[in-house]
Amino acid sequence: MATFTSSLPDQMLKRLQDLSVELNVPKNRILERALDRYLQEVERQIFIRSYQAMSGDSELLSLAEDGMEEYNDELIKLDEKR
To answer: What residue segments make up the domains of the chain, in order of their start?
Structure first.
């Protein structure tokens, strides 16, 4: 694990310290969990925006629809074999 040094506003650091004491959890663990959740949310938003951008591209939409038709055909074939 690497060491990371940063500055935080005094009020935020006080809140972090208070929460750490209240929960009996190290400050670095609280920061790690908070940053992980934040990064997951940012990645989710990026993913959503990329799909929204693609939804306006008729060529990509056509490719996706063709792919879904092929996928559906394969599922039907699998069901017929049962």
So the answer is: 10-81
